Amino acid sequence: MPTYNKLVRDKIPEILEQNNLTYRLKHLDKDQFHSAIQEKFQEEWTEYQKAANNDEAVEELADLLEVIFAMTEIHGITKEELLAVRQRKFIDRGGFDQKYYLLEVEDK
Question: What is the mean pLDDT of residues 25-46?
Answer without folding.
Answer: 96
